[in-house]
Amino acid sequence: MKSFIPINENGLAMILARTCCRSFNPKKAINDQIIELILKAGQAAPSAKNRQPYYFLIIKNKLCLSKIAQASYIGRRRQFADWDRKKTEIMIKGNSYLNSNDAIILQAPVTIIAFRKSDLNYQEAQPNELNIKEEQSVANACYSMLLAAWSLGIGSAWLCSPLYIKDELKAILGKYGVKWQKNWQPRTMIPLGYPLRELTKPKRKSLEEIFQNIN
Ligand SMILES: Cc1cc2nc3c(=O)[nH]c(=O)nc-3n(C[C@H](O)[C@H](O)[C@H](O)COP(=O)(O)O)c2cc1C
């Protein structure tokens, strides 16, 4: 097997075009083989010392997702309670959880909740460094899944509300038979589904703003 496959123009175009999708066709399911491929892409991402400090829940149950969307709405409000009210309203969008960005998990046929799964046996001289590396490793895996989904024509998004609702998630998921582990820390949820409409990628900063050469 070839150990290195140079990226071709299509691969690069795919990376450049990927964008978050926030409206999904609720009628078009994603089959389990595709979900497996997406998970494999997550695993293929680099992780510090190859420890793969993550765990994923693949949720299709709409009642469960609706409870998570409601908890997210409340959690975001709680998290941003000290903020300027107007800013919070704009960010959370509207006065019902159904209008919030998090409610897209009700449209998407599948949502992945990504956890950081800390390696409790692993010690590092600087515990904070270990923290950072585990966070980076989880994010790498998630981005890899976003790219894989995109390459398969599947839209995805990154919703950070799990950061704010750890206790609620634990309670909700417990009702669906999930045995919460003490080393789990919810990090993001990733709805997956076929896009309902054409997507527009938000503009990026100019390249000049993000790099300099040192020759
Ligand atoms: C750490 C992180 C947190 C994010 N949180 C949210 C979120 O809570 N809700 C949301 O709609 N998008 C969220 N996003 C998606 C960003 O808004 C999006 O990636 C960014 O605007 C660039 O757009 P693009 O991904 O379509 O290129 C998040 C992305 C990252 C990496």
Automatic annotation (TrEMBL):
**Originating species:** Candidatus Roizmanbacteria bacterium CG_4_8_14_3_um_filter_36_10
By what name is this protein known?
Nitroreductase domain-containing protein
Q: Which GO terms describe its molecular function?
A: oxidoreductase activity
Nitroreductase domain segment(s): 15-194
Q: Which Pfam families match?
A: Nitroreductase (PF00881)
**InterPro entries assigned to the protein according to its UniProt record, in alphabetical order:** Nitroreductase (IPR029479), Nitroreductase-like (IPR000415), Nitroreductase/BluB (IPR050627)
